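Hello, quick one for you while I still have it in my head. I'm working through a protein record and want to make sense of it properly. Would you mind checking whether the tokens look sensible for this chain? I owe you a coffee for this, so here goes:
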Amino acid sequence: MVQTKSNQPTKNYAKMGIVAAIVVVVAILGIWAVSAISNRGGVSVDKAIESVSPDAVTGADLRMAIVRMDAIQTDSHVLQDLRKQRESYESKLRDELTAEQKKLEKEKADIEKSQDVLSRDALQRRVVDYQNRVTKLQRDLNERAQSIEASFQKALAEIQTKHLDPVIEGIIAKKNLSLVIDGRFARMGAGTENLDITNDVVSALDKKVSAVKMEKPKGF
């Protein structure tokens, strides 16, 4: 996650899992690219950058911090509760799958026993009906699993935009920070205890919200 005081946070939500970091990506233009632009007959590089301010942040002015998004995902009450909601729906789906599998296994056994009793056409109809039921079960379970994930991601986005982002932005303002980096990509040395604001974020987030209800997935 990267945040500058002068810019609104750039939000990047990733699926997985759970809350993605806020990131500012700086693209570096190579010397060969500058040469290519200059050789096209356009303005010179000096002319192109004449309006760029020479001002830059100095080390003395720069106030940095890191936040570990993975810890927020595992430690905050609201995200722990959201995962439990998803797991509850997934457990129901697994239980239904187990029950339906048992029914289908019994029907398959009955079909095998009746091979010498039923006519060829009657047997074929039972086999086709059985195959159709298996196909329908697979389709229904897949659609419901996707619906669980969609509801989870919708609640996740709500937590991010309505609660987590404002908390992080508030801490940035209170601490007068210039730059916040996702701690998963940072390495800290000695004497940097105050650099990590993860616990502050988790504590504030827990005070702001304890639960966000998932929208009921389709089929439940």
Summary: The beta strands are 64-67, 179-182. The chain is about 55% helix and 5% strand. Residues 120-175 form the longest helix (56 residues). Residues 31-208 form one domain.
